[in-house]
């Protein structure tokens, strides 16, 4: 930033900017920043125009400007004007020789205020030419002394063959040699440009069209060396039969004459333009008498006086100066003109209309032959700058009061508006707050109170005067004539009644764009704002915005502090700060309560703090604080303190370091949260978690958790026992990939299940998979997957609870095999297997039931009553009674029954049933599983056997009585033969009796045989 002494709203350098030569102003050391420059300097600048002001003077220029570093300046107090030839390079790469002049401009205190560096072009003769080529006014004077010095020649143009013949003089003017040949078309190319060629053709064509013989014109031409020369051409047309056949022309080089005239004309106009363009009053006065003998016309524009007022009256300039400034300025001039070549004066002038105008007078002492010959200067109106300075001071005062907070918001606004009206006397300020879209709480210094009451509580809108409209539109509204402006059509009588003719208003918006107030400026004349006044309005509005927002934020801060105090008390949260160099610690009130210490009886410093730390924590905490101070980083730690009553409190503490300008720890800021209750709760939770973890570890189920990266975050003891061996360390599976424990064919299923869990948090998904085991037999497991979510419903981790169902699967396989066998047996046997559900009153029959009895079996409904109805009526009561008694006897586990059963075709089957009874814990029969065996064929076979046995018994009876007689006789005869001696006769007779008995027995046997066959 440039120093304030150089910022005068551009008014001081207005004259400099309009100068036709390269000029640049820059500040004193050590910064040497560019303050202003002329437009003629821009072609030589290395920096674009927007960034040139404020840049480094020595790094802003092209060419040989770096040589200026070698200038032997005498420091900021230098009073000597320095000159040196330098080479400047423009943006085209062209180099020009200049004479640079460095002039210190003195301030009122006798010190250098800033430097002016100006450049005058230096023209040097070409090599070999001993005479310098003079340009500008000097060249013009030389031409005036020798008007006949100009080259001339003649040329002829043949219009038929378009050839050109020219004399040596014309060749010299065009810079060509004697052997140079050219045709008409190319000859015209010597014209300086297309416009000049067109002018030649136009003059010639007009001459021919008017059948005139002579013509004359002055045109610039471009020589073969690309130099521009001016020629005067007097031509004559040669006609033949009315057709031009030849043009003869006399050519004069009038470059010097044209240049001289142009220089004189341009010099006059440049001086006049410079004087007119300078936004100041240029003057010249006698250094001895201080009488003004020249004053530019701008004096009337700025002060309302005529030039003759100054030149005719030697004391006029002093008479219009403010009385308080006259003596001081007069003494300053007399003292400084003899010692300083340049200086500035600031004073007030009473203008013709009575207003005060602040003038900055830049004075130069002109010397010749070592004596003062004139005083020259430029008076610049710096009233706006001075007002801005006063406005700056007012703003500093108001903002300072705003910081202290000793005044209310209304007092602050009133003080600021009072200062504004002192700086701008014709201004009448107003300020209204906006509440519920209405103008409220109006504040004004010089406006009638009755007027404020009239506009109080007006609803803002698109046509509610200047203030109401500005607040509604949220933009600046300028009304130059209240009487005629449509925005005031409904309210102008309010303003006109009190002589208010113009009103400019600007809304005060907060940071979020809400209208909080509106600032209004009234005038008692029809008035429109200038650019500077608009900037003042915006500037004042910003100050009002700062004041109002600051007070609003201060109020919020006070409320926040109050709430913070309440929160600290409720949360047991205290704050502190430690001045390291002074070893002074400041505690909040809540921190004293946490430590159980009276504020009035405790001096907080490092040593007293260390004494309050638990002995076991003291060294660790101090190491933490040392670490924070050494590495300049934030710290967080836990500590225990011992209260004066001996109780121990747990604190969680935070600290942050503040560094001084040397980068060393200057202050520590921190906060402490009493977490004693939290610690106790945490301890209880840890104990509860330990119990829960032990309970989980004691389970035979698997319990694991997987993070969102698919890695273990927890696993219970059972899981570690069965799968920890896979990772080589049974005690640490955290962070490992669980897919390793799953057979490859099940891994895609795991990935899909995890993805579905994350997409649907808190939903339980079931999955059955096989995992690897030590004995190489896959371990069958069944899992519940559930994604646990956070407070916002976001997925956190996946909890998995699993069962080892290897034995269950083996049982299922056995049952499946058993069922298969049962089905095969059921299909292969003629028995009817059944499962009688007593509770549901339903009998589930095997396929044998249909094969044996012909009934279609309804798997959903076959009650006991239907079975009972199919039992033979002679057996039904017996069977049902026997079944009921057996089921009622809790000691009986089986039941057997024989009965007859009706088939579907009406035939009767003999049934033999055997069932096994299943009972509940109370011994009540709930189920009977058994079999019905069809024994009809066997029963019929038994009946046939019994009938046969009856017949056999009849035969046996017959045998036992009929056979016995002949058999007994035979046995007796044999006994006689064996035991007694008999005669031959007797033996013959006995043999006859024996034969007869044998025949009788044989006959009986034949009859028995026939009878047996008949019975079969």
UniProtKB/TrEMBL annotation:
The answer to whether the entry has keyword Oxidoreductase is no
User: Which reactions is this enzyme annotated as catalysing?
Assistant: ATP + protein L-histidine = ADP + protein N-phospho-L-histidine
What Pfam families does the record tag this protein with? PAS_3
Specify the PAS domain's residue ranges: 267-340, 560-632, 688-725
Looking up Gene3D superfamilies in the UniProt record yields: 2.10.70.100, 3.30.450.40, PAS domain
PROSITE patterns, per database record: PAC, PAS
Source organism superkingdom: Bacteria
Against InterPro entries, the record matches this protein to: GAF-like_dom_sf, HisK_dim/P_dom, HisK_dim/P_sf, PAC, PAS, PAS-assoc_C, PAS-like_dom_sf, PAS_fold_3
Instruction: Report a single Gene Ontology molecular function.
Output: phosphorelay sensor kinase activity
Name used for this protein in its record: histidine kinase
